[in-house]
Amino acid sequence: MHLARFPRRFLAHLPTPLERLDRLTKELGGPEIWIKRDDCTGMSTGGNKTRKLEFLMAEAELQGAEMVITQGATQSNHARQTAAFAAKMGMQCHIVLEDRTGSNNANYNNNGNILLDHLHGATTEKRATGPDFNALIEDMADQMRADGKKVYAIPGGGSNPTGALGYVNCAFEILSQVNGSGMKIDHIVTATGSAGTQAGLIVGLKAMNAQIPLLGIGVRAPKAKQEENVFGLACKTAEKLGCPGVVERHDVVANSDYVGDGYGIPTESGLEAIKMFAELEAILLDPVYSAKGAAGFIDLIRKGHFKKGERVVFLHTGGSVALFGYDAAFDFSDRWS
Ligand SMILES: Cc1ncc(COP(=O)(O)O)c(C=O)c1O
């Protein structure tokens, strides 16, 4: 696999660390837990979008774009990281924010990712939730082009075959880390939303015949729909790479039992995961993605899905900036004396 064939803007801090979580492993009494620190990729604190945007923004630059437009939920990490890339590369950035939760909370609407969007110079607009925000921004980009602007549209989550290349590369990176240290791993677990992370990873793992099962913990769509989305994108990504058919339908496994009341609405198990990771390992998760992913991971360990003696890698996809938009989800009144 020759990823250097594709344009890429090298701005990520790679490779990200692969660390053993001793205290969490002891607490849960199951498999040996490792974490792949993609929350440390850099670009406005880091997260999984950095890897995707390296490829997407290079394509934008190559096409002569002076502006990028993208979309996401109010507390979108993807939007914040796109704004950061645009700032670094001297482009304008416009973000269409989809109000998926209806929250009126002041911090949710102004702090966390939103604060950073604006600090990086992006302009934002909010719209009521709707069926196809990717089509909406494509239409807006067409209109801007008709007005003479050079615009590059990036789909929500940076999830298209170009963005997914970033996670093909992450699969290579993980394998090179474990092969280099003689460390056999048995499973990889990640949160899955707009599908690019899981799709890219599975293409990379399958193309290298890694024989490591990958589990996506869904944050929005039901299992069947999530798996279809990931599989569809994995097939297109494999085609782009010149290895069509490398991913089979049964390679794509998602579990959407931890979504709770809906996208962006914190769950008890997610809040428990945030506290466990923070108190035991000094690692910050976010309530929307990585905490729901970790909640599924923890629950499956408790249920014996991963066995003692196995080694499991949790891919930390970032997002802790959103904590500052979700402070109302926590009650720490008992910590004061
Ligand atoms: C912190 C975080 N984790 C996980 C995801 C899900 O990744 P993907 O959209 O590639 O499925 C996202 C997507 O926005 C995210 O922001």
Short description:
Belongs to the ACC deaminase/D-cysteine desulfhydrase family. This protein is α/β, with parallel strands linked by helices.
Explain what you see.
It contains 11 helices and 10 strands. By secondary structure, the chain is of the alpha/beta class. The protein has 2 domains: 3-46 and 160-329, 3-Layer(aba) Sandwich (Rossmann fold); 49-154, Rossmann fold, CATH 3.40.50.1100. β8, α9 and β9 form a beta-alpha-beta unit. It is globular, with a radius of gyration of 19 Å. The mean pLDDT is 98. Bound molecules: pyridoxal-5'-phosphate (PLP). The site of pyridoxal-5'-phosphate has 20 residues, from α3, β7 and α8. Residues 12-318 form the Tryptophan synthase beta chain-like PALP domain. The modification N6-(pyridoxal phosphate)lysine is found at residue 49. InterPro entries: ACCD_DCysDesulf, D-Cys_desShydrase, TrpB-like_PALP, TrpB-like_PALP_sf. The active site is at 76 (nucleophile).
Instruction: Specify the helix fraction band.
Output: 40-55%
Indicate the CATH class of the largest domain: Alpha Beta
Low-confidence stretches: none
What are the distinct ligands in this entry? pyridoxal-5'-phosphate
Question: What fold name stands as the CATH topology of the largest domain?
Answer: Rossmann fold
Q: Beta-sheet strand percentage?
A: 15-25%
Total strand segments: 10
Determine the structural class based on helices, strands and strand pairing: alpha/beta
The largest β sheet comes out as: 6 strands, mixed
**SSE succession:** EHEHEHEHHEHEHEHEHEHHE
Overall mean pLDDT: 98
CATH architecture of the largest domain: 3-Layer(aba) Sandwich
The total number of structural domains is: 2
Distance between the termini: 58 Å
As a whole number of angstroms, the C-alpha radius of gyration is: 19 Å
* Tally of separate helices: 11
